Amino acid sequence: MLNNYLPIIILGGIAIVLAILLMSLSRLLGPFRPNTNKLNPYESGMDPVGEARDRYSISFYLVAMEFIVFDLEVVFIYPWAVRYLDYGLGTLVAMIIFIVTLFIGLLYTVKVGTLDWDAKQGMFN
């Protein structure tokens, strides 16, 4: 049983040893001259604005969750679409129910105003 995972364990061990070795060599051989500019936080080439622990609107997280849900939808639909002819009518009905359920969820979030960032009155704003 464990023999099946032995190559993965060996590969993981080699990756860890190689990462530690390369970081140690970089630290030993490379220049290390810290100063205040190098130790400042860095955000995509821009100076950081505000605190890192600022609060975000709940709409931001709801949109992110919807994005993940629709990404997962693609993960389920694409393999089904590739093998659609092999599975038959039962999987078609299941997929239609799945898509309709997601569509109802999307309609609900649109109705609540999750996607409308300018709305002043909404359930989650």
Automatic annotation (TrEMBL):
- Matches recorded under Gene3D superfamilies: NADH:ubiquinone/plastoquinone oxidoreductase, chain 3 (1.20.58.1610)
Q: Pfam families attached here?
A: Oxidored_q4 (PF00507)
Membrane-topology annotation of the record: Multi-pass membrane protein
Compartments, record wording: Cell membrane; Membrane
Question: What is this enzyme's catalytic activity, as reactions?
Answer: a quinone + NADH + 5 H(+)(in) = a quinol + NAD(+) + 4 H(+)(out)
Q: Under which EC number(s) is this enzyme classified?
A: 7.1.1.-
The membrane spanning regions, by residue number, are 6-29, 60-81, 87-110
EC top class named in words: translocase
- InterPro entries according to UniProt: NAD(P)H_OxRDtase_bac/plastid (IPR023043), NADH_UbQ/plastoQ_OxRdtase_su3 (IPR000440), NDAH_ubi_oxred_su3_sf (IPR038430)
Query: What UniProt keywords apply to this chain's record, in alphabetical order?
Result: Cell membrane, Membrane, NAD, Oxidoreductase, Quinone, Translocase, Transmembrane, Transmembrane helix, Transport, Ubiquinone
- Molecular function terms, GO-annotated: NADH dehydrogenase (quinone) (non-electrogenic) activity
Protein family: Belongs to the complex I subunit 3 family.
| Function as written in the Swiss-Prot or TrEMBL entry | NDH-1 shuttles electrons from NADH, via FMN and iron-sulfur (Fe-S) centers, to quinones in the respiratory chain. The immediate electron acceptor for the enzyme in this species is believed to be ubiquinone. Couples the redox reaction to proton translocation (for every two electrons transferred, four hydrogen ions are translocated across the cytoplasmic membrane), and thus conserves the redox energy in a proton gradient.
- Quaternary data: NDH-1 is composed of 14 different subunits. Subunits NuoA, H, J, K, L, M, N constitute the membrane sector of the complex.
Identification of the protein by name: NADH-quinone oxidoreductase subunit A
Whose protein is this, by species? Answer: Fodinibius salicampi
Lineage of producing organism:
Bacteria, Pseudomonadati, Balneolota, Balneolia, Balneolales
Q: Which gene encodes it?
A: ndhC
